[in-house]
Fold this sequence. Notes:
mainly alpha
Amino acid sequence: MLTRSGGVSARSIPVMMIGITLTALYVTAVMWSMARGDYSVWMALLLAPILVVVTLPALRRQGRREDDQRLFRLLLLALVLKLGASLVRFYVAFGLYGGAADAADYHNWGIKISSNFRSLVFETGLPNLHNTGLIRFVTGIIYTVVGPTKFGGFLIFSWLGFLGLFLLYRAFVIAVPEGRSRTYARFLFFFPSMLFWPSSIGKEAWMILAIGVTSFGIARVFTDDVRRGVLPLLAGAWMMTVVRPHVAAMVGLGVVAAYLIKPTDPRRREMAPVVKGVVLVLMVLGSLLLVQRTDEFLRESGVGGEGVTDTLQQTSFNTSQGGSEFTTSILDSPGRAPIAVLTVLFRPLLPEAGNFQAALAALEGSVLLVCAVWRWRWILAAARSVRRQPYVAMALAYVAVFVFGFSSIANFGILARQRVQMLPFFFVLLAIPPKTGGEEVERRPTVAREAVG
């Protein structure tokens, strides 16, 4: 910072020294890794600042959109932590578990595909571009551009996951005017599972991006900005369907439920029944197609049964192995709802931890449970606002369907990883304060400001 006389202020000197020192260390690390010929490391070191610089304009714009530059700093911190989490995820996958992770398979396929593409041989060797095949293909595309770098692959997928989280935050700001956006941001960007799991080469990062794109489109549609909402909604739905169609079906059912209770716009009251009927039919047909695709997906995976109960029981059997198994609480009757909710949202709890990794997951689940109990009035306020805020209705319905569908998972490790697809919507319920109780309403961007953003 310059003084009026053109000099440097005393307060800015320590900041400048820290910046110079970090820059020198960074350049040294890049030169050292290049001298050793470790392409994976030095390319990752080059990619990290590029990803930050590319993302900065969107973060600044959101700060201006909400007229709060502190938000820009919070989002920048979230981005840096998210990219840093990819290194932790990398160490766990290839250090702690010796490469016994799906990311190793995606990396090997990425090398093969990118080698062909760089030689102008456009043959992937993949039977299809669904599910695992798509992630292998995307990894190959990334490696074609940046080269075969594990570190770089983890960084880019982690960045994609951050973009999904950012779009989820934008959706909340747009569609939940009664919510507290800073509260939601702290849960969404800094919850350990959201930092850790979608930070590697794999489906989690892709699905968070897909859910973010879809949610952004849903938020636009629910706030009568259909023109700008349809394209991201359809694009995100496709992204989910090709990897995990059952999650796309859950989101679709949540949207249908929200649309059913959404009040009719007074300006369109005369044509409202016709329009609502047509849209509802299209939504139901789309949801049925997703459900059908889900059934095909489950049967191809060796999970599908003759009915819903058979499928849930088969899923429970298939996941009850690997060292983190437990007795499931399949939600096949209303009486089992409390234990199913507890299991899918919060378990493992601290008494159930059997090792260090499980203890970390249990600590997180226990903290989230305490937050939910502490904020029960907020959850109730969210439930009461579903007609005023259809996005909240969608989130609530999605959480309910997710609990039903994943109550059959019998492995804490799998459950903790899959849960990140639900947590952003559960956080919505924790970020809407009651209208009474002395809580000050948080300053939010105006409709006009958000509309032009």
